Amino acid sequence: MLPPVPDPSERVDRISGADLRYWVYRDDLAANGDARTVLMVHGLRGTHNGLELIAAALPRRRVVIPDLPGFGDSGPMSRRHDAEGYAHAMIELIERLGGRNRPVVLLGHSFGSVVAARVASTAPELLHRLVLLNPIATLPLRGPRVVLAGLTSAYYALGKVFPPRMGRSWLSSKWFVLAASRAMTRTKDKQVRRFIDDSHLRYFSRFHSPVVLGETFRSSVNSTVADYARSLTVPTLVIAGETDELAPLAGQYELAARLADVELVVIPEVGHLVHYETPTVAADEIERFLAAS
Length: 293
Known about the structure:
Layout: E1 9-15, E2 18-25, E3 38-41, H1 52-56, E4 63-66, H2 83-96, E5 104-109, H3 111-122, E6 127-133, H4 146-161, H5 164-171, H6 174-184, H7 190-203, H8 210-220, E7 236-241, H9 249-258, E8 262-267, H10 274-277, H11 279-291
């Protein structure tokens, strides 16, 4: 049973040249000194909607989830749409949220984990804790699915070469979206599978342009959390999926071994969509990790 999502308040700020939209869940908890803000960063082609189930399962926390610039309802940035550019935008947002006075908990899923790691390595003073959900620890173009990764790269490259309208149509193909969705899904629950497919069909193609998507994709296959491992000193929780093929478990163990202050949790029988398939389990681990601090 998926947890009900609380009604958030929607906000917009001018950040890194973008009209960045973000959603605040349980804003009333901001007055509570113990309710530290949790800022969540979605992955490639995601929007804030994908992380709402984890937000719903954290009833004691004020949660903020933006649409990254160039995706969802947020406009594009005046800088490159890569891990560095997104990290710069998230640092600006954290400062707007009062992170200089009260550091936040930063959570990143998939490519969002790379963005979060860069934030943590660049501005650790803004963070209380770091949570990496299905983090990208190894380069996909060098992993066991190198052939599939190569085909995916070619798919995105064509999307940029085509004229804009044709490129958008190509990159928004229903069949590609469903294939990607089902490749990442492990649950046998038909209702959950249908929910995941419907969510991806609704939100996966909400990107500003093929150019923006192409920039982000290139960064997603050329950067990992491991790039920042030596400079990550913030206490970190890594939540991995046992059968995650995009972020293989072996890489998660290698990453955890390189971090200074880390706890690794492996959720069995789940792949790259922990936030959809087991949001309550993930939220319970997050709450336990934060309560212990």
